[in-house]
Amino acid sequence: MQSxxxxxxxxxLKLLCETTGQSSLLSIPLNGExxxxxxVDNDSNVSITVKPGNRPLPHCSAQGxxxxxxxxxxxxxxxxxxxxxxxxxxxxxxxxxxDLRLQRIRDQxxxxxxxxxxxxxxxxxxxxxxxxxxxxxxxxIVGSIQNIPPSPSGTMADMVRGCAAALSKLFGCDAYxxxxxxxxxxxxxxxxxxx
Length: 195
What we know:
The protein has a single domain, classed as Beta-Lactamase (2-Layer Sandwich). Helices cover 37% and strands 21% of the residues. It has seven helices and five strands; from the N terminus they run αββαααβββααα. It has helices at residues 2-20, 62-69, 73-80, 95-108, 155-170, 175-178, 185-188, and strands at residues 23-30, 33-40, 111-112, 121-131, 134-144. Strands 2-1-5-4-3 form a five-stranded antiparallel beta sheet. A hairpin with an 8-residue loop joins strand 3 and strand 4 (121-131). Helix 1 runs antiparallel to helix 5 and helix 2 crosses helix 4 (95-108). It is globular, with a radius of gyration of 15 Å. It starts with a helix and ends in a 7-residue tail after the last helix.
């Protein structure tokens, strides 16, 4: 599955990097956590990225919270028990606040984590789904807070969710479409005809 999703997602990650100007990432869920398996760095002189093999903290990263949102109850309890590490003063460590964010992720199909894993950095991510409750991957962009502001909207959010929506559709899930989240034309053109 890992090599399959990496190969299928590769052109979408490249497009996401080109259209947003930010490095793009692909993660997969592993025991309730996110594991980065691919990255496409942007071409600017200063590039912020996350290396494949990285496991972002479950509670205070965009990819980590998406993985938590679709994890089993047992996995979630294990990952959120005990004191939670706060790499920055902005890291989300309150269990009630985390629970609210996990519900929001399942509703909005998007998450960001400004200044949470590293001060000055934000990640905007969206789930790749095989069904409404079956997470198979996470697509994201990473960059400085000046380029990816907190709760970004507009083209940047449309492209991240659009890539996740297209990939979800390729794996047989219409969760984005059912929520009225459209796949932008430049992404739709990349999809096999008839999708």
